[in-house]
Amino acid sequence: MLTPVTAGNTAGFFPQIALDASGLPHVVSLNYVGGAEVYEYATRGPAGWTSETISTAAQTCGGNTGVLSDIVVDDAGIPHVSLEIPDQAIQHGVRNGGWTVEDVSTTLCPFSGPSADQAFAFVGHNAIAADRASDTIWIVGWFWDGIAQRYAVAAWETGDVATTQIDGGTVGGYTYTGRHPSVAVDATGVVHVAWEGYAGSGESLIRHARWNGSTFEVDTVATMGGANSGKTAVVTVDGTGRPHVVYFEPGAGYKHAVWNGAGWDLEVITTDSAAARQAWMDVAVDGSDRLLVVYSRSDGDVRYTRGTTGAWLASEVIAQDGDNPALAVTPSGTPHIVFRDPSADQLVHASPVRVSTWRLRLGSESGVKKCQALRRQGDG
Q1: 213 in a structural domain
Q2: Which of 168, 208, 276, 277 has the most CB atoms lying inside 10 A of its own CB?
Q3: Does residue 187 sit within a domain?
Q4: What is the pLDDT of residues 285-301, one digit of tens each?
């Protein structure tokens, strides 16, 4: 069971989840403890859920506080997190006995606004993944490039002394690109990044980059008629090394794109709509190369579906009031979902306990809600 550090505190904002080799969940989220914003880590062991504070989410010099983070577990079972310290730095945290947190981008605090003297100030959005082939960690983030006067998406790998720019918006303007980046690494160490770019003219692009060993090769997945500032695009890689991007297109719904070797094949997963600024989703792939997707809807539903190209099952309702869902899956296909329940003001973990039943573990409840009506469809 997930619980706040102190009973009654607001917990579980923007959660992210990862599984270790034993299939145990590890979660990072933003919590309020004693009136302060902190990044919180929680994991489930034999005795249930335990949680602890990673670090403060506030700037060291005061000002804004962060909200966004991500988590991965390496092959040794050690959790790593990426953390947003807005306008100051992107951070990498590792738990090895206790938490050690370091800046991995230029620290500029306080951030006085876009200017040429602030070469690469961190804006906020971030994601993390493990390269298991070389035992390194990749972090991607959204930055302001003060020299070129543009927003950009950039990457950092364990051992780097600086970030590597992947893609930038229009030079000399405030063109947005790089919002809510997502990162995945295949079994051979090839890194894939997906993000939203916005030209300011009503046109939004879903972009993708592939690391070729020395630089990032960038291409466009899809062009849309409007921008969304939720978590607009997420990427995963299947067992053959093909990248899959799931994204939200206003007016069309949630879509799936898969690389065919020469370009992107696009399809609609569901026409479900999302509320403004809340097209939040996550994707994972199981050991059979089946995709699993969780997403939020405009009416507050958290919904889940799974399938392969051209064969998606009908979406299931996991909860009727949830924000910012995140997903991880075991090789055998068991999903683990976390989201924030705004009505109960708590963090929720959901996973099926048998074919036809989902189990929801709520942060302030001691029991388990067995939602018999939430039937899983066709899960073998």
Answers
A1: yes
A2: 208
A3: yes
A4: 999 999 999 998 888 89
Distance CA 155, CA 128 (A): 10
Closest to 295 in 3D by CA, of 265, 317, 267, 266: 317
Q: For residue 28, is it within any domain? A: no
Residue 184 counted as domain residue: yes
How does residue 210 score in pLDDT terms, banded at 50, 70 and 90? very high
pLDDT confidence band for 276 (50 / 70 / 90): low
Mean pLDDT of 9-18: 84
120 contacts 87 by C-beta, under 8 angstroms = no
- Judge whether residue 6 has pLDDT over 50: no
Show the domain range for 212: 60-371
pLDDT at site 60: 62
Residue 344 CA from chain centroid, whole number:
23
Look at the chain and count its residues. Answer: 380
Domain count, the chain: 1
Which range (62-66, 80-84, 126-130, 186-190) has the least confidence?
Answer: 62-66
Question: Which distant-in-sequence residues (6+ apart) come within 8 Å of 169 by Cβ?
Answer: 150, 151, 152, 175, 176, 177, 178, 197, 199
Which neighbouring-strand residues pair with 264?
A: 259
